[in-house]
Amino acid sequence: MKIRAMIMQERASDIGRCAIVLATLGLACGPGTPSDEAGDTNVITLAGTSDADTDPMPTTGASTPTSTSTSTEATTASTDPTGTSDTSDPTTGDPPAACKPAPTLPRRLTNRQYLNTLEDLLPETALPPLVLPPNRRIEGFENLADANPDDAQVLAAFAAAAKTVSQTATKQGGPWLPCAPGGGADPKACGHAFLPGFTALALRRALAPDEQAQLLADFDTRLAQDGFDAALQSALNTTLASDEFLHLRETADNPVEGQPSMIQLSGFELAARMSYFLWDTMPDQDLHDAAAAGKLDTVEGVAEQAGFMLSHGKTVPGLTRFVRQWLYLHALEQDGDPFPADLPPGLLQPMANEVSRFVGHVLQDGDGTLAALLTSPVAFIDDQLAAIYGVPPPPPESIKVELDPARRPGLLTRAGWLALRGVGDSHSPFQRGWRINDSLLCQQLPPPPPDIEPGLPGDLPPDATTRERYDTILAEPVCAGCHTPAHLVGYGLENYDLLGQWQDQEHGKPVDVSGEIFAELAPDAAGPFSGGAELMQRLAASRSVHDCVTRKTYMYALGRMLGEPDACALEALQGPFFAGGGHIEDMLTAIVVSDGFRHRLAP
Which residues does 336 contact at the CB level (< 8 Å), separation at least 6? Predict the structure, then answer.
């Protein structure tokens, strides 16, 4: 209890969580780096292979560097208790700084967004593998501008990819081209019918008249010199290699009336924000046309378009990729050797399929709430997962089953999440608790001091349980400061082994599933608990968890780190999300109609 008291003395910041304990030993928790994840696989294919990387876990005594040095937890803006003071900027009339949108950073499409966009622009085109630079992640998210800066090597890789795509698409043709390969009977008419619409969709905006004239003039010149294929390939390459295609840049200059430092996004910019948030790909023709017609210029119009988008078939795949990043399930998408290395062959894909189908079920057929993601016993399994869950194999015509809610409530008690929270050949209570604290309570751990040797003691008896082994870490004050909050949450999941199989005993000893959530992490969920089902119920009912998930979703939606300027927007989103029952679609709509999403701060 003395260690816990020392831990809890300092909770105001990420690093402060173990600063007191380490300070007593003359050590300090150092700041993290901007990226907390290793890069994804370099070889990316258009069909069937995703760009997600592995989720490298810190060893038992260490944690992965976090974004502590670049991320400021949003704080509630202070107000005058009398309600009479004017907090606006006296020189501009703008609202207080904490209520303005934060500056917008240009962001490169993620590899998955890049491939999804190519797939939408060039349907039924079979592209060869593309060698793309790896995405890195902050707080699990690969779409944050801070995580993936450009350099010459990165830009050269995408230039080479654009050339490959242009060559392949020109040779194959497809339904995207309004004529036969080679230009058909009238190659010039084919190019003129195709290129303006294609280029506008690819660049996610309308083309100015002079741009369109230049585009067609260049096509005509190349057509006369080298023929249709060369002209088409050149035009495709020019578009796909352009900075505008590869990046989301916002340049509209339309100050909000009475608030000159706030810029309203153009309809096309807002359409791109919405589509890459909800669909993980470009705006389709309908959304592009809605932007062109001014239907995204009002809050009501944005809400209407969001409703259309959320009912579209692209929504479930797009939001599933968000869930996988939010819950650090990247390894389920990787191509190649599974993680962990000793995962039974063929199990990775069923685990990935279960996550996708479960998320789709909750959003489309279930009640669509955060609580359902954390507590629903519905599962989508094959024979391998049935064996892990200890249930009869499903009949061939159906893979949907209902598991025991006392053992399998929600995503965090399923094989996909559990199997990726291990070290070597054993599950890790630290990994499990750490990821819950990060993903659901927005509590990140600082990296360990550089002179700490990670690992468990090697002199433990062979029949020691996993909990007994990890308890030895808590006996070391230098480790206990950061590990205790994670261990006490992770211990509640001791009924699940490395693969997520249920266990009542380990090495002949009853497993101890007693845990605790500290009040400093989640006041409304705090206290002792026993087992995974009680832990999930506690988390599902917590305002702290709903607030954290709102923050994570808002960060993902904006594609950047959050800070104090986002406090007002978060406060306006978090309360209604929890009070309204945690309906995910309601939160998504509230985000896209919010001022922070529809505006940017003037430079």
Answer: 41
